[in-house]
Write a structure and sequence with these properties.
By secondary structure, the protein is an alpha+beta fold. Helix content is 20%, strand content 37%. It has helices spanning 103-110, 114-122, 127-134, 166-176; strands at 24-25, 38-47, 51-55, 64-65, 70-72, 76-78, 81-91, 96-102, 138-148, 153-163. The strands form two sheets. The protein has a five-stranded mixed β-barrel with strand order 2-7-8-10-9. Strand 5 (70-72) and strand 6 (76-78) form a beta hairpin. The longest helix is centred in the C-terminal third of the chain and has 11 residues, at 166-176. It is globular and about 60 Å long.
Length: 177
């Protein structure tokens, strides 16, 4: 690793098409499951403790603890890395939805480095202060909606997270009126 080279605007190369994702804003009550590129905005009303698990450093799939080490179904014996997931409940006034944040989105949401997050694995009581700070905060989330058949509910899988901007939301409302 580390022997790469970056060439800015190399001769003879053209960008023919830039793929852009546009996200459609919906109210929580309008979501049904199966939608891609959705955006919701709401208030955090419930926060669950983060869950930690071991993953393969190459493919990021969960690994099995064999008692003698960790085994990836694709890559065999590996030295695992720690992954984590966090669930929050968002409310936009029309309904609530459980949202699922994975490692990178959690780090962004909480403005934390991975090393800081791992302290919550060792001492979950430290996470209580984080919960207190997040409750009642408003965020804009972008991602996809899926149906969780096991719990018979829809969930929002977060791909992008940003703090809601009152000015931006006011301007958005003015455009729609």
């Amino acid at each position: 690793l580390g022997n790469g080279e970056l060439i800015i605007n190399p001769e003879g190369e053209k960008v023919s098409e830039v793929r852009q994702s546009s996200f459609q804003r919906k109210k929580i009550e309008e979501l049904a499951g199966g939608e891609e590129n959705m955006e919701i905005m709401g208030t955090i009303v419930q926060i669950f403790d983060p869950r930690f698990f071991h993953t393969c450093p190459r493919c990021r799939s969960r690994v099995n603890d064999t008692g003698e080490g960790y085994n990836c179904t694709e890559h065999g014996q590996v030295e695992p890395v720690t992954g984590y997931v966090l669930n929050l409940v968002m409310d936009d006034g029309t309904g609530t939805i459980r949202t699922v944040f994975w490692k990178n989105q959690i780090n962004h949401l909480l403005s934390k480095e991975e090393s800081e997050m791992l302290t919550y694995k060792d001492d979950p009581t430290k996470f209580e202060a984080v919960k207190t700070d997040l409750l009642g905060e408003q965020y804009k989330l972008r991602g996809r909606v899926r149906k969780n058949d096991m719990f018979e509910r829809i969930e929002f899988s977060v791909q992008f997270v940003e703090k809601a901007s009152p000015e931006e939301e006011a301007a958005r409302l003015e455009k729609t009126e």
